[in-house]
Amino acid sequence: MTKPVILVTGANGQLGTELRQLSSYTSYNFLFTSKNELAIEDKNAVSNFFKNNKINYCINCAAYTAVDKAESEKEKAFLVNAEAPGFLALTCKEHQTKLIHISTDYVYDGAAQQPLKETDPVGPLNVYGASKLKGEQLVMQNNPGALIIRTSWVYSVYGHNFVKTMLRLLKEKDTLKVVNDQVGCPTYAADIATIIIKLIEGTENKNDYRGIVNFCNKGTTTWYHFANTIKEYIHSACEIFPVPSSEYPTPAKRPQYSVLDTSKIKEMLKTDIPAWKDSLQKCLKLLCEINPA
After folding, report:
1. Which DSSP symbol is given to 257?
2. What's the CA gap between 193 and 191, in Å, rounded?
3. Distance between CA 287 and CA 293 in Å, rounded?
4. Active-site residue set
């Protein structure tokens, strides 16, 4: 019996790299493509790739993720985050490939007071969020069997992220200012990778997972408390000061509150989700082994 084939687009990003690390522990064949090998906005390349390869699952990690830059590159953000996933969804449907598409907490407006459910109203505050929301809509419109995973505050041992930036700054600086009025949940990309494999395993066992599901680690925090937790782990002497978002203006407005309710995915998979501090500790341990102080 041939092993199912999983295509991972945007494979050099945080989640793509975590999936690559996990791939050797699974019973699947993986095809990892970076932007240079398969740019999802190139319709001909996508069509040809699917014609030349039998793909059972496609995990779309490819995205335009420069949140602030998107404000001045709206066309590019919508091309990569909306039009391209829409066409990819159509192509997956034609080839009977199960699509798992990665989305974001930035589709919400940040005005909520309690964890956000998949069915709660959306209202992006910036171009990036709007482009990702349009991508979700096109994916579901073109392929109702697709599965969309909304996640938040993603970090990893790999790529550029808040955790790695903080580790560097905490070693370089005596003082830091970090925003303390945005509430969310840090999510370890390795945990997202694990949950995606569980979803694929469930699909192999004839479960029909489709629509939108939220996934983030358990618990809530602010960027300031997140930074302090990293500081405590490495015993940094750097002093961190909490500041409001107004003191740290950025081109793109961020949601004030974007904690995701994950009860749907926990019920789907009959699984628990690691607490954010536990997952952060695992990531920091790996990072400190790679780059000892």
Report:
1. B
2. 5
3. 10
4. 128
Residues 21-68: pLDDT tens digits? 999 999 999 999 999 999 999 999 999 999 999 999 999 999 999 999
Name the pTM for this structure: 0.95
CA 86 to CA 134: how far, in whole Å?
9
Residue 150, beta-bridge partner list: 103, 214
Four-CA torsion 111, 113, 116, 117, nearest 10 degrees = -120
The answer to whether 258 and 212 are in contact (CB under 8 A) is no
Q: What is the pLDDT of residues 257-283, one digit of tens each?
A: 999 999 999 999 999 999 999 999 999
> Which CATH number describes the domain made up of 5-161+187-218+259-274?
3.40.50.720
Q: Please report where in the chains the tokens 């999936």 appear, as a residue.
A: 19
Report DSSP letters for 101-161, one per residue. EEEEGGGS-S--SSPBPTTS----SSHHHHHHHHHHHHHHHH-TT-EEEEE-SEE-SSSS-
Q: Which amino acid is at 60?
A: N
pLDDT tens digits for 226-235?
999 999 999 9
Task: Answer for the pair 64, 70: CB distance below 8 angstroms, yes or no.
Answer: yes
